[in-house]
Recover the amino acids of this structure.
């Protein structure tokens, strides 16, 4: 089991196209005046005052696996056909977690209750997208390291609650990733707080049959 | 040895080696999952054969197989003898090349993230690299290579570790994808930061094929004071089945060599997928081409981890934001003392948005741990902004710690000629490659005239040159003094600026607001002084960028002095104002204005527009029931047709709500819009409620009285609410599949208690079918929720 890698600041920019799309913008249909666009862009700019993207990642070797379950080297067992299928060719798994921090959530709630729901909705969409983009960033970072070992991540990643990978697994992932260190807690119903905190799992496999050097 | 490499670089394109792993793979020996360094030491003859094959192919420099031989990486394989492993691997390489090529000690990333971007302590990282460097030195390396870095801070740590133990030649290469490293460093910033910190050659390796890497080299060259290095992969990995392979052949690969040399490469090799054949082909294609020497010997530029600002008389005027300074700011002082830095973040963001190019950081005040606070502020700012920082302190220890930690090339504010301080500060500027502001002050007495200042400036320049600091590394403070106490002070400052600019040919700065101290209406004096200074050649000013008049004057002078090419910056800054004015002056009837305000979501203007409409004689009831309801209905239609998207819908709904509240004062009776009571809640276990809040706003705008129970609400509480408020409709929301299952129990419990309220459900994962299975209605969004609720209420 490798050390936990902590990212105190994940340098992703706001994926504006994805934010607009999430909010329902359709390039061929939506009519947006320059003032309206300016307002939304200003909110995106302001968003940067409140966002603190942090993350963690941990590589763990797979001890054994079959079509129904995956057992990790630390004796954690995940019973999930879907996850087992994702990890079919993998030797290791990557756990990763990201949070947008509590400040942005407080601000969304504040704006929502104090009559600026427009801003709250934009902030909410941006927070969702940058959190997701941060997971992409961690995957990119780990992939760069893996390249030197002639390995790579699976293209897909999984989160607890997808298919038969039940949400209860969130607790195991949360503990392994020591997300408490990032100020994230987990509720009795396995929700991560603050909102816009996410955990994902990807597999690590060899690129080809060559050696683990460059 | 350093001179030998420097001489070699003058004569030819220095050829590096290619990938090591591919060659070992051909031997088909190394088992998957083995520690490469340990396996190589167990099989030295195979590793030696690879090194030897590169030497025979024509590599001038061969990298020892020590890429992952640092404490962190070796620990993954339960190995701790770092120095010994490094020493022995260098030994294998040296014996293999038999003095016919140079051997570089290869240092790769630790795999950890370093402060301020990660949690690994910077000094600890330096120490980890020093341990490896000691082993490499013990093995007898000829030079060092720090490679495949994505974090400039980690590259700095490795470079400092080497520089603090030896003066051998150091190459540093970073890995760029899409024009930046994964951590956001662009090629120019890499070459400026690492070159100024003492790297002898800077460049790029891995990640991209030769085609893409050419762009990185071309971007670096104009700003590089050191030779440029490139080690591309053998093309871009292609998927063969499920596997990625590098398949660019040696001839194709080497065909890029002349282009690399033309773009400015001085050292060329290969990374993933390259072989001795690739290197041999490179040798052939470069042997008759002379490389381009660095285009400059020095550069006036400061950098953060993600941005470089070049200071050049032909570039736009540089604004140094002055706000992060506790002087005269009682609240800020208190917050700094408490360690509350949120205000610093806001100051940085605001100054950047107002046009600052650099941020001055000063945290000096009584009773504060200035070193600790400065590092904390730097940590915060490195994340909060991409602007380079100016380290402003009168305390040498603060400057030293800040320069060591700061992940870019900083500007020191300032170094004066006061003994013995400058004798400590100049070597620090030289060691960390920082630029500095030269303050022409040699004693406690301020030199009043330009002539006196020139003497001190010349003296400090001479001292700086002894440490190989150049004019480009210095910005002279022309010393703006208060005209209220010395009427000729501004003239002396302007003379100093002119002399520096025309005779000495160096950059200048002033602390702008000093000039107006003690006078009323200071902004006019500051603005005029700024314009005069710019005319004399002033390059930078420390000022408050939030003062719009100063920014405007600066832009105007830039335009008049032809620094703002095609007036692009001026037009971009001021054209928007005009656009807004045009829209607001359109002639519309009072009702049309209200209608349009709602359609456009004009929340700031709706109150005045409604007051105007009432004053013009429009009946308030007509405004509510015809104009405003008509407008919001129109917005709903536009949303349905996707001509509006969510922020527009909500902005209009909020405008409508504000309009209602404004009109209440004019209406004789409450608007007859109480179409019924609606109870809303996000169900137990779910904390995501923004969708429910949107529905609440939409329903209230259509005359419903909305009771919102909030989020994570239990079935029991919802049922209690039904009993208490007797709603016509109960709306339930849930975002996740795991929480939407909590909707059914609410409906069951209500039925069990014989409550007749109708239910409507919604949320990202909720479907119409799911709603029907519970006997509830469904709405996909706020607009549909209004329609469905209206339908339910009208039936009842």
């Amino acid at each position: 089991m490798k050390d936990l890698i902590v990212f105190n600041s994940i340098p992703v920019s706001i994926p504006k196209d994805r934010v607009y799309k999430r909010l329902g913008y359709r390039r061929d249909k939506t009519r947006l005046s320059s003032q309206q666009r300016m307002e939304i862009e200003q909110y995106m700019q302001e968003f940067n005052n409140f966002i603190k993207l942090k993350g963690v990642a941990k590589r763990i070797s797979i001890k054994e696996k079959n079509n129904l379950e995956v057992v990790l080297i630390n004796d954690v067992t995940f019973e999930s056909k879907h996850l087992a299928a994702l990890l079919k060719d993998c030797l290791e798994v990557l756990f990763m977690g990201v949070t947008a921090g509590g400040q942005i959530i407080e601000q969304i709630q504040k704006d929502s209750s104090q009559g600026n729901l427009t801003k709250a909705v934009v902030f909410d969409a941006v927070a969702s997208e940058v959190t997701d983009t941060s997971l992409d960033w961690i995957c990119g970072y780990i992939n760069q390291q893996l390249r030197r070992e002639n390995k790579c991540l699976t293209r897909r990643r999984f989160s607890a609650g997808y298919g038969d990978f039940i949400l209860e697994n969130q607790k195991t992932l949360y503990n392994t990733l020591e997300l408490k260190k990032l100020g994230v807690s987990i509720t009795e119903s396995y929700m991560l707080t603050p909102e816009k905190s996410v955990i994902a799992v990807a597999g690590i496999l060899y690129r080809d049959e060559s050696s683990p050097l460059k | 040895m350093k001179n030998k490499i420097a001489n070699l670089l003058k004569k030819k394109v220095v050829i590096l080696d290619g990938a090591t792993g591919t060659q070992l793979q051909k031997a088909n020996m190394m088992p998957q999952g083995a520690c490469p360094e340990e396996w190589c030491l167990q099989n030295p003859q195979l590793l030696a054969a690879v090194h030897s094959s590169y030497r025979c192919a024509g590599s001038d420099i061969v990298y020892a197989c020590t890429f992952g031989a640092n404490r962190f990486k070796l620990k993954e394989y339960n190995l701790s003898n770092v120095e010994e492993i490094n020493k022995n691997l260098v030994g294998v390489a040296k014996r293999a090349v038999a003095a016919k090529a140079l051997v570089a000690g290869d240092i790769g990333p630790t795999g950890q993230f370093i402060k301020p971007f990660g949690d690994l302590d910077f000094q600890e990282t330096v120490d980890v690299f020093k341990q490896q460097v000691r082993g490499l030195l013990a093995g007898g390396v000829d030079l060092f290579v720090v490679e495949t870095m994505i974090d400039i801070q980690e590259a700095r740590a490795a470079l400092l570790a080497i520089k603090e133990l030896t003066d051998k030649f150091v190459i540093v290469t970073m890995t760029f994808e899409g024009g930046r490293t994964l951590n956001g460093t662009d090629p120019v910033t890499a070459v400026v930061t690492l070159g100024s910190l003492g790297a002898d050659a800077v460049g790029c390796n891995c990640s991209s094929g030769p085609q893409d890497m050419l762009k990185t080299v071309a971007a670096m060259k104009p700003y590089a004071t050191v030779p440029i290095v490139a080690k591309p992969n053998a093309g871009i990995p292609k998927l063969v089945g499920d596997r990625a392979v590098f398949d660019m052949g040696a001839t194709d690969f080497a065909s890029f060599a002349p282009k690399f040399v033309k773009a400015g490469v001085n050292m060329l090799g290969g990374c993933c997928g390259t072989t001795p054949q690739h290197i041999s082909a490179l040798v052939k294609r470069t042997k008759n081409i002379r490389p381009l020497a660095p285009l400059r010997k020095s550069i006036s530029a400061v950098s953060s981890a993600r941005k470089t600002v070049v200071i050049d008389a032909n570039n736009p005027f540089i604004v140094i934001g002055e706000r992060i300074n506790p002087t005269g700011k009682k609240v800020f002082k208190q917050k700094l003392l408490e360690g509350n830095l949120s205000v610093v973040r806001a100051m940085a963001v605001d100054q950047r948005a107002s046009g600052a190019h650099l941020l001055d950081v000063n945290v000096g005040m009584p009773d504060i741990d200035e070193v600790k606070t400065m590092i904390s502020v730097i940590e915060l700012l490195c994340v909060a902004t991409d602007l380079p920082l100016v380290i402003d302190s009168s305390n040498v220890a603060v400057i030293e710690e800040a320069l060591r930690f700061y992940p870019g090339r900083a500007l020191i504010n300032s170094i004066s000629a006061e003994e013995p301080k400058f004798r400590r500060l100049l070597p620090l500027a030289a060691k960390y490659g920082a630029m500095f502001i030269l303050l022409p002050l040699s004693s406690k007495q301020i030199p009043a005239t330009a002539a006196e200042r020139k003497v001190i400036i010349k003296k400090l320049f001479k001292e700086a040159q002894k440490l190989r600091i150049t004019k480009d590394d210095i910005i002279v403070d022309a010393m703006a003094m208060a005209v209220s106490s010395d009427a000729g002070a501004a003239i002396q400052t302007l003379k100093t600026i002119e002399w520096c600019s025309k005779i000495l040919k160096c950059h200048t700065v002033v602390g702008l607001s000093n000039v107006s101290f003690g006078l009323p209406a200071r902004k006019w004096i500051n603005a005029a002084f700024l314009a005069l200074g710019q005319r004399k050649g002033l390059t930078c000013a420390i000022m408050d960028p939030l003062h719009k008049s100063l920014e405007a004057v600066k832009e105007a002078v830039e335009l008049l002095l032809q620094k703002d090419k095609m007036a692009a910056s001026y037009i971009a800054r001021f054209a928007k104002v005009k656009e807004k004015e045009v829209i607001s002056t359109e002639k519309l009837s009072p009702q049309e204005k209200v209608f349009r305000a709602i359609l456009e979501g004009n929340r700031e203007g709706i109150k005045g527009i409604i007051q105007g409409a009432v004053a013009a004689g429009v009946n308030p009831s007509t405004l509510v029931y015809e104009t405003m309801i008509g407008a919001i209905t129109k917005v709903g239609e536009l949303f349905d047709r996707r001509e509006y998207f969510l922020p527009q819908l909500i902005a209009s709904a909020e405008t409508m709500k504000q309009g209602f509240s404004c009109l209440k004062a004019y209406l004789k009776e409450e608007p007859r819009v109480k179409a019924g009571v609606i109870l809303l809640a996000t169900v137990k276990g779910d904390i995501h409620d923004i969708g429910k809040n949107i529905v609440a706003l939409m329903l209230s705008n259509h005359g419903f009285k909305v009771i919102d129970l909030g989020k994570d609400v239990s079935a029991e509480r919802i049922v209690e609410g039904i009993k208490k408020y007797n709603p016509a409709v109960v709306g339930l929301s849930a975002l996740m599949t795991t929480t939407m299952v909590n909707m059914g129990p609410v409906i069951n419990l209500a039925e069990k208690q014989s409550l007749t309220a109708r239910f409507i459900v919604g949320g990202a994962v909720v479907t119409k079918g799911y709603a029907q299975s519970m006997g509830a209605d469904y709405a996909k969004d706020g607009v549909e929720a209004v329609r469905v609720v209206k339908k339910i209420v009208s039936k009842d």
Remarks:
- Residues 676-795 of chain B form a domain with the Rossmann fold fold (CATH 3.40.50.280).
- Chain B touches chain A through 89 residues (CB under 8 Å).
